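User: Okay, second chain of the day. Same drill as before: sequence in, structure tokens out.
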Amino acid sequence: MLLTHPDPDSLQDFCVGDLKAAITINGFPCKPASEVTPDDFFFDGLSKEGNTSNRYAWSLTPGNVLSFPGLNTLGISMNRVDFAPGGLNPPHSHPRATESGVVIKGRLLVGFTTTSNVFHSKVLTAGQMFVVPKGLVHFQKNVGKGKALIFTAFNSHLPGSAVLPMTLFGATPAIPNDVLTQAFQVEEEVVNEMKAKFST
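Assistant: Same drill. Structure tokens below.
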């Protein structure tokens, strides 16, 4: 599931990210080659089922540069996404990457909306793939009777994620109510109720 990558091309064989470095750049500084070990190139975090006991009945386990520093500068990452029955990966977007995914188990409704407000969706089962172009709002919902599992891949070592409910109603500092009431054409009490649900 490798994708062409918008991240800059590497200038060396590898650049294992030094997540503790004192400086911040677009990516992470490289660990000195003398400190790199075989463990820097292997990650078992996607092998464990995630905890789906939450409001959306889903769990995301990231395999990006923050959890797997060997991905630094390579322009790729993956996630494991577990769903309880009825679970939802809520509408969100990835500002820095296209997403490709494959269903491992279960039945999932996968959908995205284009910048022309056209909605594309399909129910997928094990072995079927999907792709979501960079930056578009999308979701996955378990529509089967049992658990579901997908693995997703990105053409960025840190694709980012803007989850719409939290981004709009849980931002700190908060987005002004008059902006949200006008945007959604609702009364202020509706905005306050939404903020109460999503504030941290």
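The chain has three helices and ten strands.

User: Thanks, on to the next one.
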